[in-house]
Each structure stands twice: as structure tokens, then as C-alpha cells.
Amino acid sequence: MAGETHGDVTLSDGATPAVGKLFADRYEIEALLGRGGMGSVYRALDREVGEVVALKTLDIYAADDKAVERFRREVRLARRVTHRNTARTYDLGEHGGLRFLTMEYVEGHSLRAWLARRPRPLAAVEVTLQVAAGLQAAHEAGVIHRDLKPSNIMIEASGRVVITDFGIARTSEAEGQSQTGGVLGTPAYMAPEQVEGKPVDPRTDVYALALILVEMLTGKLPFSGGNVFAVAMARLNPELPELRASGRIPEPLIGPIERALCRDPEGRFRSAAAFARALERVRELLGDQTLAGAELGGWQDADDWAPASDPAETLASLAESGVGELGGGDAAEAPTQHSIAEDSPLRSSSATQLTATSERTGLRLPMPTTSAGPRTGARALAVLPFRYRGPADSDFIADALLDELTDVLSMTRGLKVTSSGATARLTSAGDRDPRSLGTELGVELVVDGTIQLAGERLRIAARMLDVDSGFQLWNERFDGQLEDVFELQDKMGKRIAEALRVELEIFEHRELADVEAIESYLRARQAKIKWRLRGPDGAVTHYRAVLERAPGFKPAMAGLALACMRAWFMPEDERDADIDWAGVAKAAVEHAMAEAPNFAETQIAAASWAVQGGFYREAAAHLREALRIAPTSALAHEYLGRLQTEAAHPELGISHLELALSLDPGLHWCLADLARYKALRGDYDGYTELMDQLLTQTERHHATAQLMQMRVGAWRRDAARVREALAQLDPDSSDEGARTIRQYGPPLLGPYDPEALEQEHAMMLSVVKNGRLRTFMHQLFAEQAAFHGDRERAVAHLHEAGQLVLVDLDWLDNCPLFDDLRHDPRFVTLRAKVRARCEQIWAAG
To answer: What topology is assigned to 4-104 in CATH?
Structure first.
């Protein structure tokens, strides 16, 4: 069969790549990634080397001498540049009359697709720094890109940023002459000298990079016009549009951007490296996050400054045409290698986003690149000395924090932490390039940050970087008071270490989950923190969604186990009355213990399960194991502290509760536990102070806090306090838990009707299946009866609590309502039974 003829060129049979076919006797064509005015890009398996490559063809209709020369030049120049932030070009070939080249296949999406989400300032700066590094390498090789734009920048799933498409690049030597034959480039991203057809140099690429940074920050370019020519000509005006007008660009970035966008190349940064150095200095300011009020001026849009709160969204790569040419030539060049066609089977699988964001800390997590399992062995990490800003006589704080962080993280299972002595010398900003540090120290992750001291107020900003990509994975700010240096060192070091540990658990297993699974995981974690456990938007549903997509994702197994235990604790309502929460929780805990026992949350969930059966020795052992796995686990310290306080070991319990609160100030109920301890000892001023803190810091525990207020009112036989707390509760609340809580107060204020109250108690217990919660309900019923002097019913409810899993010896011994019962033989017997359970906790250490 004869081949096809196009003008003067004839293609032999089989010359055109086809999906599922072998091309040039070497490349298995797997998918069409995109098609543009100059040609097509395919994903192909190179049989000779066994690697996936991008194969770019020159469309036969566009194959005039000029286009062919451009094609050759792309290969020649691109092969000069060997840098991790530029796509490698392998070879140039011809098959059956069709010219093609092969290049590195970058799995990810274009920056154009990422712009749809309008990245936050820190992420935009990080991307710009990587592009600048790639440009600097190209410039040092004598290559000027000349067509830098979002569609020519790819973002790998790992977070690596890659410059592609050197189709109209020129050597520095060639650019010493004026351009002829039309102006090459994309109008929106051209530098003024390109528009005017004047010689270009590395500063031309710097100009385009600054435009892209503005677009990432504001969602649009600074120049506008009715058509592409007007847009291009707008930059010839002597004055740059006011960058502050958008209100989206952080003030520290204004100066570097304005300089990079100077109309006269002589006024710009002389190199991409110089631009990068200026951005590095700004990144330190933005990463500190202490400047939001003062040094960032009016730029305080909470949606942009605060750590990301929405989980990662899945973004599809957008097909975009290539190079536009002013003054003649082709309307569009071949697309970048990952501009995915609408009908491509890769469109959904390649639609990955650069990062997933921790709702609580602003984590930025690189997505998986393979389906391989998690890396084996310990994760290597180095802590750098934090940069100190404050009075010279207190600069020792930085060294103390370095030692504390290193020591605490070294005790965390799964981490191999470089000694503080090995990193203590790295005190200057110039020594902190994460890539070189990774090589020098042999680590995968680096932690650094800043310490700012003003008077007694201390602010620490910490971040974690991936040394391979240089990308920031996590950052958080910590505030404290410089009252006791040693206490501060201890608490802040542990708190930062705990925040890091939580994020590292996800990072370690990221290879097992895609973007949607990570999105569901982050939603689940946030829902669990807020105790939103059941229903379609509850933590249990989201964790299950994770495991449906990623059955081996162990952080979700551990999280599901704990979420199910908490869901079982809640009173049932009509939405899930038919769910066997005991069975669901048991299955989730057993699965987590079998598949993910080395997670602190798994051990905490197992401890909670043991408590439901009254197996307190096992519960305490699981909590001890959780703390061996993660010495800074705030949840483990909270739970163990609560058990030890109830079990009449208050000195240990209070220590754990206070540590849990310092590790995670969001565990507000620790304040209520500490307040209860004070109230049971008659320290009502101390109780009130702690409860005021709780009620002013959060509304999440409003109903349960008012229950505590009513109980303390009952203990003191203070009807006014009970009435005041009851008035704070919504009588029409649809929440089953809130309705149950509200039923405690009215029987204390009205005439005592024991028979009616017993009926009410029976109805309340009918929706409670959890042993620990049923025990607590009988404790409340015993208080109501004792308040009215009904000894028999009080003892009866105490007996029921004892038959269940009562371990609250501190309450039995110190609640004023039981003063008249403590010599009753039945009470003495009950106390001995409860003490025996407490001894199980004590025996576990």
C-alpha cells in the first residue's frame, strides 16, 4: 500500500504514531497526551531502555525548513541543559518521513492547571524558586528559553517543578544580534525587548518568570488589552501597573517583582539566581508568618494568609496551544508534553495536584509518583538551628530548642534524627539549601524555622522541607511566654515535635494513596478533631472513603479505629439507630491492630476498647505503648492523664493532662479535667478560672462545659449556678447529646419525683449502648438522687455504675454529695471494687 503524500514529503505506511502500536520499531505508543498546531505529543515506552518517554512529532503539514530547524534546535539546546528543574531531551529521529524527538516524561500537570486554584504566596514563591534554578542552569549553559509561560512549566507529583519546551530557545551568542523574521514568543509573557524585536538575554526570562509569579499570586497578569497585540504593547509603557492594587501580593514581594519587571533590562536582576536570592529572603519572612500584621502592611486577606484549610482538589491538566508568533509564522506550536487531550485515557489518571493541605497546620504534601509501598527503614531527618531574632542575651534559646527538638524527635519510632552537633554549625541562611544539606547530612527531610522574642512574648515559626524537591511540606506557628526558659524549651520542643510527627505519618505512607484519598483523609482528620463522627460528612465516612481508594493506607486504618470508638461513645439518634456501633468499632480496632499497630492512634483506640470492657490494665498498657511509639502523642497523654486522675493518681494524671494541653492547645477539654480536679477539692476559684479559659477559647465544648457547671452547682447545692448553666443550653436543640445533657438540670431545680425521673432515666439509657457512657449516665443519676437526699436510689445507681466499668475513684472519694454515704457498707464494697480496677492502671505504670 502506498504511503501518504503531503506537499513534497511522503510518509511511509505506519509512519504516524498510533496508540497501542509500535513506532519506529522501538517505541510502544501508550497514549496521546495532546495535539497542537505544530505536532503531537505521546506517552511511549522505549523498548530499548525500558523507560517511559514523551515522544513529540513534527506535524507533516508544518514541516517547512524553518519548523524543521526549530525542531533540531530544540534538541541541540535542550541537551545542553542538565538540571533537575529542566526536562531532559534524549534524541532526535525520523521515521518514514516523520520527524520526532524524545524527552523525559514528567508525570504531573502544567502550572497553567495549577493556577486555577490560585496557589498561596509561599507555594507560589517555592515554585518560582525552582523555575529560577532551572533557568539559571540553562543560562549557564548558554541557552535562553524565550517562551517561558505556565503551560511550559510542569509540576511533578513529587513536587518537582520542570521547565519544558525549548522550541524557540536561542544561544546567548546568537542573541547578540537583533531578531529577524518575526518576533517569537507568547505575547502575554514577552519582555519589552522581545516585543520590540531587540536582542534578548537571561534577563528576558527573568521578566517572564516575574509575570508568572504575579499571575500565581493574583490570578491574572498585570498587563491587559483588547487583543494579544494590545497586551504585548502594554508593557512598553514606562510605568508598571500598580501591583498593590490587587491586595493579593505580600508587601515584601513587591520590591523584587517590580525590579524583575523593569521595562529596561538594565534595571532588572542580572540573573535568575539573583532574583532567586531576593525571593529566598522574602520566603523567610513569609514562612515566619509573624509579619502578617506589621511588615505585611495591608495584605491580610485571611483566605490567603492562613494555612490552607480546604483539602486538596483534583485538577485536570488543560490542553493548551503552543508558541504564538507576532509578525508572521504559525499560530500555535506543538503542545507541552502533558497538555492532555480531552479524550485521552490519561486525563483522569494524570489529573494530580501538587500538594494536599493539612487543615490544621498548612501542610503541603507531595503526592505519590508510584504505587509502590512505603519506604522501609527509618526516615532520616535533620533539625537545623532556628534563626533567632531578639535581644542578644537570649540567643541561647535557639540552641536549647535545637537540642530539645533533636532529642524528642529521636525518641519517635520511625525517625532517624541527625545529632544536634552535626547541624549546630549551620547557623547562616547561606548554608541552608535543602538539596545540598540532604546530600551532606544523608537525610530526606529538614526542619528549620525562626524564633522571635519581643519582651516576654515568644513566637516560633517552624517548617519541614523535602530535600529532594526543596518544597515546604509543613509549617506552623507557635506562641509562648518567656517566663521559665527551661519549661519553655521543654514544652515548645515537644509541641513542635508532635505537630511534625502527625504530618510525618502521612508523608511516610503517601505512596499508597492518590489525591482523592488524601483529600478524604484530611477531611476525616478534621471531622474527628471536631468530634463530627457520624453521618455522611462524619469522620467515619471519610476514613472509609480513604480505604476504599487506598486499602493499604495505614494512617486511615488507625484514624478509623479511633473515630469508630468515639462514634460508639455518642448517644444514638434516628440517623444511625440501626448501626451496630459496637461491632463496627470492634472490627475497626482489630483491623488496625493487625495492619497498623505501630500507630499511636491505633493503640489509643485499642485502649478505648479495653476500657469499654473494664480491662484497665490492658488499656493502660496500650496507652503506654502509644507513648513508646510517639512520646509526644497529645491524645495518648490526654487519655492516660484522664484515667490516672480518675484512678486517684492525680499527680501523674495532672502531669499528663498539662503536657497534652501544651502539645496540642486544641485539646481544650483537658482544661475541664483539670478544673474538675480542683472542684472536687473545694478549690472553686481555681475551677472557675480554668472553666472561664475553656469557655472563652472554644465553643466546641459548650454543652458539655455547661453540664460540668451544673454538676459543680449540684455538688455545692448551689441552685443558682445550676439554673445559670441550664439557661445557656438550647432547649430546642436537635442534637441528641445536647438534649441528654440538658436533662441533668431540671430535676435538681423542681420538686423531686423519683418515679418520673426513673422513667426519664430509662429513656435516656435506651439510646446509649456504650459501656463507658452508660457508666457515666449512672454517675449523673446518682448525683441527682443524692442531691435530693435519696440515699437508696443514689446507692442503686452507684451499684449499676460499679457493675459496668466505673473507675472514677477520685469522684467517689471527693464528691460532696456522697459525704453521708461513705460509711454505708454498700458504698465501701463498691469503693473496693473500683479501687481494684484502679490498681490495674497503677500496675501498668
So the answer is: Phosphorylase Kinase; domain 1 (3.30.200)
Q: Which residues are catalytic?
A: 147
CATH class of the 108-346 domain in this structure: mainly alpha
Whether residue 46 contacts residue 26, with contact meaning beta carbons closer than 8 Å, is answered with: yes
The CATH number for 359-511, chosen from 3.30.420.130, 3.40.50.10610, 4.10.410.60, 3.40.30.10, is 3.40.50.10610
Domain 108-346 identical in fold to domain 568-843: no
Q: Is the dihedral of CA 788, 790, 793, 794 positive or negative?
A: positive
Closest CA to 779 of 823, 810, 737: 810
Alpha carbon distance 817, 821 (integer Å): 8
Place of cell 514568543: 185
In sequence order, what are the residues at sequence separation of 6 or more whose Cβ sits closer than 8 angstroms to the Cβ of residue 676?
Answer: 687, 708
Question: What is the chain's Cα-based Rg?
Answer: 32
Run of H or E including 184: strand 183-184
Looking at residue 412, its pLDDT comes to 67
What is the assigned CATH class of domain 568-843? Answer: mainly alpha
Look up cell 484514624; give the residue.
Answer: 559
Enter the DSSP assignment of 547: H
From 225, 229, 192, select the one nearest 211 (Cα to Cα).
192
**Rounded CA gap, 716 and 24, in Å?**
90
DSSP character string of 808-821: -HHHHHH-GGGTTT
DSSP β-bridge partners for residue 389: 452
**Residue 165 contacts residue 152 (beta carbons within 8 Å):** yes
The Cα–Cα gap between 254 and 358 comes to 28
β-pair partners for 517: none
In three-state secondary structure terms, 551 is: coil
Q: Which of 472, 401, 454 is nearest to 293 (CA)?
A: 454
CA distances (Å), origin 203, targets 77, 581, 702: 18, 64, 59
Q: Which residues contact 216 (CB under 8 A, 6 or more apart)?
A: 111, 115, 118, 119, 123, 124, 127, 128
The residues, any chain, with a CB within 8 Å of residue 472's CB and separated by 6 or more, are: 122, 123, 126, 287, 364, 463, 464, 465
The domain ranges of the chain are 4-104, 108-346, 359-511, 568-843
Task: Compute CA distances 400 → 256, 424, 488, whole Å.
Answer: 35, 11, 10
Instruction: Name the residue type at position 795.
Output: V
Residue 416 marked as a ligand binder: no
Are 41 and 29 in contact by the 8 Å Cβ rule? The answer is no
* pLDDT for res 789: 95
pLDDT tens-digit profile of 776-814?
A: 999 999 999 999 999 999 999 999 999 999 999 999 999
Pairing of strands 153-156, 108-110: antiparallel
As a residue count, the chain comes to: 845
Comparing C-alpha atoms, which of 217, 265, 269, 267 is closest to residue 243? Answer: 217
- Cα(151)–Cα(156) distance, integer angstroms: 13
Write down the pLDDT at residue 641: 93
Helical axes 634-646 vs 650-663, angle rounded to 10°: 160
The 3-state DSSP class for residue 464 equals strand
**To which residue does cell 495532672 refer?**
654
* Residue 657 DSSP SS3: helix
Per-residue pLDDT tens for 469-494? Answer: 777 777 777 777 766 555 555 666 67
Model confidence, pTM: 0.52
DSSP secondary structure code for residue 388 in this structure:
E
Q: What is the average per-residue pLDDT within 507-515?
A: 71
